[in-house]
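Input (structure):
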C-alpha cells in the first residue's frame, strides 16, 4: 500500500474508534435511563434479561474494539516500515507528529485505562440493577 492509503486506513481506524465510543455511551446511557424509569421496579427475571442483553451488546463492542485496535496497530506498523524520506509532505508530517504521542507504553496505558473504566461502569450497572435498594431513595 502507498503512504496515502495507509494514512487513510489509519484515519478510518480512528473514525471507527470514535463511533464505537459513541455507541458505548449510547448503550450505557439508555441502560441507566431504563434502570431509573423501569428496571428498579421490575421483577428479577426482567432485570436479568435486560442485564444479559446489555452484557451481550458490550461483549460485541469489546470484540469489535479489539479488532479495531489490531487493525490500527497493523496500519501504524506498516507506516513505520515505509522507507524514510528527507522531506515529508505536510499531512504525513502532521500524522507522524501525532503518532509520536502514542509511541511505546502510553498507548497501552490509555487502552488499559479505557478497559478499566468500562469494567468499573459494568460493575456499577450490575450493582444498580441487582443490589441497590431503590425503596430507600
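Output (sequence):
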Amino acid at each position: 500500500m502507498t503512504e496515502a492509503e495507509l494514512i487513510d486506513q489509519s484515519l478510518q481506524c480512528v473514525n471507527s474508534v470514535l463511533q464505537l465510543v459513541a455507541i458505548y455511551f449510547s448503550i450505557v446511557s439508555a441502560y441507566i435511563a431504563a434502570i431509573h424509569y423501569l428496571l428498579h421496579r421490575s421483577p428479577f427475571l426482567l432485570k436479568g434479561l435486560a442485564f444479559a442483553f446489555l452484557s451481550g451488546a458490550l461483549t460485541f463492542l469489546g470484540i469489535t474494539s479489539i479488532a479495531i485496535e489490531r487493525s490500527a496497530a497493523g496500519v501504524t506498523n506498516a507506516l513505520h516500515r515505509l522507507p524514510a524520506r528527507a522531506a515529508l509532505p505536510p499531512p504525513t508530517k502532521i500524522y507522524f507528529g501525532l503518532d509520536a504521542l502514542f509511541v511505546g507504553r502510553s498507548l497501552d496505558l490509555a487502552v488499559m485505562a479505557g478497559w478499566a473504566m468500562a469494567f468499573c461502569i459494568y460493575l456499577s450497572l450490575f450493582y444498580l440493577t441487582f443490589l441497590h435498594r431503590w425503596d430507600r431513595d
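Notes: The chain has one domain: 3-136. The CA atoms of residues 40 and 134 lie 6 Å apart.
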